[in-house]
Amino acid sequence: MPLVPLSWALRAAGHDVLVAASENMGPTVTGAGLPFAPICSAVEMPEVLSYDRDGNRTTMPREEEPLLQHIGRGYGRLVLRMMDQALALADQWHPDLVLTETYSLTGPMVAAARGIPWVEQAIRLVSPETIKKAAVGELAPELKALGRTDVPAPVLSLDVCPPGMGPRALPGTTKMRYVPYNGRTEKVPSWVFQEREKPRLCLTFGTRVPLPNKNTVPGGLTLLQALTHELPKLGFEVVVAVSDSLARTLDPLPEGVLAAGQFPLSAILPACDVVVHHGGHGTTLTCLAEGVPQVSVPVIAEVWDSARLLHAAGAGVQVPWTEASVETVTAACTAVRDDSSYAKTARALKDEMATLPSPADIVRLIEQA
C-alpha cells in the first residue's frame, strides 16, 4: 500500500503501471484501482521467517542485531518464491522501469537479470542496513549466477523521513513527501466532522498483533481489550481502528468508546488528538503526515529504530513491547495528552512534510533518471 500514491502519480502522468506481488495481495492492489499480476502463491512473512531455504525450522533470535539479520534473510527467501514468475512477467510485459520498496529485492533482482533500471522507495522512517545486507547475503547463490555480489544501485532512491526527525538524507537519496494510503474508504464516519467534547484517542494495533485464534504476538489481543476498557476512564473518547471481525470480539463496547471497526487512518486521524499503535511503518508515517502525536508500542524488531527516532524527536512516546502493560501504555497516553509539546512537535513535522516534493513532483525526476 505505501507505493500506491507514487503508482497513481505515474498513471496520472500517462505511464502504464502493473503491480506484481503474491496472490494474497490481489484484493489490496485491485482495491486501490491498480492492475495486478500474481508472481507467487499466497505467502505471509511469519511463514517465510520460520523456515530456511532448505525447509528446516528456524529459531527466532532474541537480541536486536541477530533478529534484524534473521528478518533480512527472510526477505531474501521471499525473493526465491517470486523470482521465476517475476522474470517471466518481465519477459512478457517488457517494463522500462521497476519500482519497489527498500527490502523487496525481487525488483532489483529482476532489474539485474534483465538490465532494467529500478527506483527504490523507502516506506519507513529508518531502514536498518543490517536487514538489507542479510537479504543480499541470503541471495548470494542467485547473485553469483548473475555474475554479481550485490543488487545493482537504483537510479533513484526516495526517502520519506522528515528532515526534522534526525539524520540528513543519505548521499544519493531524494526526499519525497509521504502521502498516506490506508485502503479504501467506504464512507467517512459522521463523527469525524463533529466537535469533540473530550480528547479523542485512536487505538489500533495493526493487522497482525491481535488476531483471534492466530495471535502472532502473545498478549496482543489481551492488551487491546484491556486498553479499550481503561482508556475511557482516563477521560478519552476512544476510537478502536481494527478489522471489523476483530471489532466484533470487543462487543459490547464500553461507555466512552465511540466506534470500532475498519477505518483508513488518514480519514479519521484529523479528528483525533492521540494515537496508540503497534509501531507499524505505515501507521507511524500516517500519524506524522496528519500531525497527530503518538504512543508507539513497537512489536517487531524491524520497527524499533523508527519508534526510538519518533521518541527522540518529541513527536510521541515509545513503550517497548517488552514493557507494555495497561499501566505503562495508559501512562504514556496521559503524558502525551497533558504535555502540549508533543502535539506542537507533531504539527511542525506535518508542516515540514508538506513542503517536500509530492509523488507527482517525483514522477518528473523518474522520467529524467
From TrEMBL:
<dbReference type="InterPro" id="IPR010610">
    <property type="entry name" value="EryCIII-like_C"/>
</dbReference>
<dbReference type="Pfam" id="PF21036">
    <property type="entry name" value="EryCIII-like_N"/>
</dbReference>
<keyword id="KW-0328">Glycosyltransferase</keyword>
<dbReference type="InterPro" id="IPR050426">
    <property type="entry name" value="Glycosyltransferase_28"/>
</dbReference>
<dbReference type="GO" id="GO:0016758">
    <property type="term" value="F:hexosyltransferase activity"/>
</dbReference>
<feature type="domain" description="Erythromycin biosynthesis protein CIII-like N-terminal">
    <location>
        <begin position="8"/>
        <end position="206"/>
    </location>
</feature>
<feature type="domain" description="Erythromycin biosynthesis protein CIII-like C-terminal">
    <location>
        <begin position="229"/>
        <end position="366"/>
    </location>
</feature>
<comment type="similarity">
    <text>Belongs to the glycosyltransferase 28 family.</text>
</comment>
<dbReference type="InterPro" id="IPR002213">
    <property type="entry name" value="UDP_glucos_trans"/>
</dbReference>
<dbReference type="GO" id="GO:0008194">
    <property type="term" value="F:UDP-glycosyltransferase activity"/>
</dbReference>
<dbReference type="GO" id="GO:0017000">
    <property type="term" value="P:antibiotic biosynthetic process"/>
</dbReference>
<protein>
    <submittedName>
        <fullName>DUF1205 domain-containing protein</fullName>
    </submittedName>
</protein>
<dbReference type="InterPro" id="IPR048284">
    <property type="entry name" value="EryCIII-like_N"/>
</dbReference>
<keyword id="KW-0808">Transferase</keyword>
<dbReference type="Pfam" id="PF06722">
    <property type="entry name" value="EryCIII-like_C"/>
</dbReference>
